[in-house]
Amino acid sequence: MKYLDQEKRREFLSYLRKESIDLPDYEVIDVPKPKLYKEFFPWDKPPLTVFDGILLPIKTPDKIWITDTTFRDGQQAREPYTVKQIADLYTFLHDLGGPKGKILQSEFFLYSKKDREAVVACRSLGYQYPLIAGWMRPTFEDLRLVKESKVEECGMVTPVSDYHIFYKFPGLGRQKVISKYLEVAEETFKLGIVPRVHLEDCTRADTFGVVVPFIKKLMKLSRKYGLPAKVRVCDTLGIGLPWDAGALPRSVPKLIWVINNLCDVPSEQLEFHGHNDFHMGVANSVSAWLYGAALVNCTLLGIGERAGNVPLEAMVFMYATIKGDLDNMDTKVITKIAKYYEEEIGYSIPPYYPLVGENFNITWAGIHADGLLKNIEMYLPFDTEKLLDVPPGVAVSEYSGLAGVVFWINHYFRLTGENKITKSTPGVSEIHAEIKAMYDEGRLTRIGNDEMLTLVKKHMPWLLERFNNRVKLKTK
């Protein structure tokens, strides 16, 4: 762990007190060579965590939302969706978000004929939410496509780190690159379209030399044209940190706080977009909500570039942990979405994937199964059957024990009350003995449902006869 030196810490505090930062003409600071923050990002090591020790107050907006980029950032990292698949998934997003539109918006590519057909197909469904937004590069040619698509809001990618400014746009420098962004943003305002600037690679950018003056100028244009400007803080490489005591540019709370408080971007116009390269996407998104952003941007199942985006379904649950209520979001739709991805799209969800993976609420350990038999809440964080329509289960293996056998039978046959079996029920110990013998002889795989049913038929035929109508698979 590393701490920012006192001189740089004082420099940050001085920026917060500096009168010039409040002037409308606070300028982008051009530099002769790129500021790459090698003290944070040594190429031959993982990024270093640096703290400045400056704490910020939590400032969670009264209303927070989730936005979606499944059909833009999520789609560019996989085989393209068909128009029908996009319309179906958009419908799921609508159903999941509920009547209050907590899945507020979804953004779309507009380049190809298929992209534009998808927008038309989703628009024809007549849903108020998610709102349909476009996406473009900072060019007038792309803006023409946005105008033709008749969207009311459009995201515009605006790289702000010197990694991009110096190497993607060689020879221009910071001021010329930012001026180019502002020219396209102003033309967007003139068309009556709300621009949403995407601060690409913001967690490696010079916050006070580039980001703050850029956003202050953008907000000046917003006031001039009487339209809101939106700002998306992009942790493009997933290197952001969720701690307010972290140093800029990696601290997500500090980035959000600075843009919200020093650039006068209202919370409802401030959004965070994370990636999961270091498994920090959800934590960073939660911290963005806590420190002033009303919007967090996600994809279904976290599908996205490299290690993926922030999983939308995770943020639905995080919403409830912060607000204490789901606000009428229908979490059972999450299970339907997962089923659609596997059965209709052919996407394979990892078995240990949270909330929707095959094993997310399955226990393998006998000691855990024993705990579930005594109190179902012992090894589950919430009622998975009520919220996701997936009852808890147990996988029978070498380590399941008698408790695992009992839990599997009760779960599979949906036995409740007096019908539930126990460890002492005739046949249970015989089933467990056969399972143990299989592993003693060298078996490595889990016991499948069909095999368990065969064992039940052999050692507990009365149970199968009595509850045969509840059997979901054929017995041998």
Which characteristics define this entry?
2 domains; 8-stranded parallel β-barrel; two-stranded parallel sheet; TIM Barrel; 17 helices; elongated; single chain; 12 strands; 41% helix; 476 residues; alpha/beta
Explain the overall architecture:
41% of the residues lie in helices and 10% in strands. The chain is α/β, with parallel strands linked by helices. The protein has two domains: 2-345, TIM Barrel (Alpha-Beta Barrel); 362-470, no CATH class. The strands form three sheets. Strands 3-4-5-6-7-8-9-10 form an eight-stranded parallel barrel, surrounded by seven helices. The longest helix is centred in the middle third of the chain and has 19 residues, at 207-225.
Short précis:
This protein is of the alpha/beta class.
